[in-house]
Design a protein that fits this description.
The chain contains twelve helices and 17 strands. It is an alpha/beta fold. The strands form four sheets. Strands 3, 4, 5, 8, 9, 16 and 17 form a seven-stranded mixed β-sheet that branches. Strands 12-11-10-13-14-15 form a six-stranded parallel β-sheet, with helices on both faces. Helix 5 packs across helix 6 and helix 5 packs across helix 11. The radius of gyration is 20 Å and the shape is globular. This is Alcohol dehydrogenase Zn-binding. Keywords: Metal-binding, Oxidoreductase, Zinc. It comes from Acidisphaera rubrifaciens HS-AP3.
Length: 349
């Protein structure tokens, strides 16, 4: 089969590898959708050298990209219980695997495995930008018939990450939440928070993204390039500030504003990857009793809960996608995505 790889320096290659065959405990999926995630861009933009250039474990040759996989079980290896995987089942993939037996792995948090280097599908092991994908059966999460394969791909990373952060924040319908960044993760958080009954204040420097946030139910939108976000949030909350805030953009200024825009006893959460932030610990955190949370993706349990919530509430996750592509269009797709002016893209097979 042929798959898409990141070569670095904003280049893609297509590689040919043997069709996968499942071993003990493994399954092979026929891919139906593979999402494009903002974190892909660091590999797309990296200097040539692949994973090693970013300090990741060495791999045996090029790795097929795509860590938002969704499809149908095509083959099941020896030792896989029928309750865990059956041919024809619609499934998402929790795109990490660890030792499989430690406390983190056994509770669905393979990315936190401390016993062995984890595999990240689409980064250090072949991912979903190909016709087939081989993974351990324990990484599978059922996809409700009410959800499209594209929605399943979104839940497999970006939307699931938003869900995980909102759960960590303990968001309720009584809360006002400021969401910094309205890219795919931020827009997902806006959709989910609105469905939870919260009042959403959406922030982004892109007018197009702010328009989409408003269409997704945001009660107010702020462009920090035009208005002081702290003053705007103070006015929108009548001087009370937000109950909680979520930062998805990784911008240092947004990270500081996220913490400063919450009330006394407020909660702030970072999900944007990489970079640094400088805070006045006493003024911004301690003397306001603010809780600051780092949230990294989600567990298999959280992924299933997110999918169930979306299916039961009829949330239009498919509306996140502004572009649908075939794998033959990968170069054009990533060129457009790299500009970060559009919404989310997905490859459909």
């Amino acid at each position: 089969m042929r798959g898409v790889t990141f070569s670095g320096d904003r280049r893609l290659d297509t590689v040919t590898v043997p069709d996968p065959t499942p071993g003990p405990g493994e399954v092979v999926l026929e891919m139906k959708a593979s999402g494009m995630c903002g974190s892909d861009l660091k590999f797309y933009r990296a200097q040539a050298g692949g994973s090693a250039a970013l300090g990741l474990p060495a791999t045996d040759g090029p790795v097929i990209a795509g860590h938002e996989p969704c499809g149908i079980v095509a083959a099941v290896g020896p030792g896989v219980p029928a309750a865990e995987a059956r041919v024809g089942a619609r499934v998402m993939v929790h795109h990490y695997t660890g030792c499989g037996v430690c406390a983190h792995c056994r509770t669905g948090w393979s990315q936190l495995c401390q016993e062995t280097p984890i595999k990240v599908y689409g980064v250090t092991a072949h991912g979903g930008h190909a016709p087939y994908l081989k993974v351990p059966a324990r990484t599978l999460v059922p996809l409700d018939d009410a959800l499209s394969f594209a929605a399943g791909a979104a839940i497999s990373c970006g939307t699931g990450t938003a869900w995980g952060a909102l759960v960590r924040l303990g968001l309720t319908g009584q809360d006002t939440i400021a969401i910094y960044g309205q890219g795919p993760v931020g827009l997902s958080a806006t959709q989910l928070a609105v469905a939870m009954g919260a009042r959403v204040i959406a922030l982004d420097i892109s007018p197009t993204r702010l328009e989409r946030a408003r269409a997704f139910g945001a009660a107010a939108v702020i462009n920090p390039a035009q208005d002081d976000p702290l003053e705007a949030i103070r006015e929108l909350t009548h001087g009370r500030w937000a109950d909680c805030a979520l930062e998805t953009s990784s911008a240092p200024s947004a990270r500081v504003a996220t913490v400063r825009s919450v009330k006394v006893w407020g909660r702030a959460c970072y999900v944007g990857e990489g970079g640094e932030v400088t805070l006045d610990v006493s003024a911004h955190l301690m003397r306001r009793q603010v809780t600051l949370i780092g949230s990294w993706t989600f567990s298999t349990v959280g992924q299933a809960e997110c999918a169930r919530f979306i299916a039961e509430r009829g949330i239009a996750v498919d509306d996140l996608f502004t572009h649908r592509w075939t794998l033959d269009q990968a170069e054009e797709a990533y060129r457009l995505f790299d500009a970060q002016t559009e919404g989310k893209g997905v490859f459909l097979m």
